[in-house]
């Protein structure tokens, strides 16, 4: 059976990227690698919309999240975490692992944080040294308004804003410098159309001053060591060279399409998916601010746990994601990020309709596809 990937990471690989990764490996201290890395550093700045360094790490995205915690804080300092899903929980767990004092804004899963809540916490507790939030909370398919939060946090010189943009980078608008985002973390297996294994972190001027003072232990993920090495077009340790060769091409693909167009494509795919799901009588988990990366949908009444995920996989070779944490068995998630286009969405929705009908859900065949097509056409003319 032919296989299709509609998961929120890993995402499908662009063939050009696969071809680049299959090339004979380079030595990471050789001139050829330095040339490649020089262009990558420029292209990462373009992607991030920053004039500063975007550091690269060989790890999954969580590695860069951990780096963001241990490079800016000291033991017993306080962090404010927006906890509205599995990845918000991860920020809290990371802070706890490093004995950072924790204050959380618990957001109902499916809701987006009210930026004014962040402001209230910062005004009431002047000990907070960093705010941690997701730009796109992948477990619930909700976006948090990091632009508005950036406006707030920049008024507090003693506090940094750290954004997990793992499913937002190269997907939705994220203007690192203009929005005052101090550290922005991303990973390779999402909007970058690469396999897992690379993670990235931008570091603002404000954040560098925290890095110098931070007392938490760090070694592999030390921003200072990586900045020093990467400015010399090296990496502090042996990086995932083949992935970096793929990254060079992936970034070129984004440049060729143009970041604006990449963002517009994702927005359209997300709208198509939401229109289809609604037309099928299903309910979105996101109460507002749905993510452009992934659409989370409640299972229709009477449909058992993972039946939809299983049906798509077994009947059509389409892999989508189920729910995570407390949403396990309750939702399914259709992803639309990375190397994905409108045809993939139409195919996924057609298969979804078929599986729903087979599970006994009352759906009008073709209604989801028609809604997605209408959304596609509406934005095409
Ligand atoms: C928003 C978000 N944060 C963090 C992660 C964790 O990244 P990784 O699995 O690459 O460590 C993911 C992965 O799905 C994610 O979507």
Can you tag this structure with a few keywords?
Aspartate Aminotransferase, domain 2; three-stranded antiparallel β-sheet; 13 helices; single chain; Aspartate Aminotransferase, domain 1; binds pyridoxal-5'-phosphate; 14 strands; 42% helix; 381 residues; 2 domains; alpha/beta
Low-confidence blocks of residues: none
What binds here, in terms of ligands, is: pyridoxal-5'-phosphate
- Give the C-level CATH assignment of the largest domain: Alpha Beta
Distance between the termini: 36 Å
Strand-residue fraction? 15-25%
The CATH architecture of the largest domain comes to 3-Layer(aba) Sandwich
How many strand segments? 14
- SSE order, one letter for each helix or strand: EHHEHEHEHEEEHEEEHHHHEHEEEHH
Mean pLDDT: 97
- Counting structural domains, the number is 2
The helix count comes to 13
Shape: globular
Structure explained in plain terms:
The protein is 42% helix and 16% strand. With 381 residues, it is α/β, with parallel strands linked by helices. The longest helix has 21 residues. The model has no long low-confidence stretch (mean pLDDT 97). Pyridoxal-5'-phosphate binds next to helix 3.
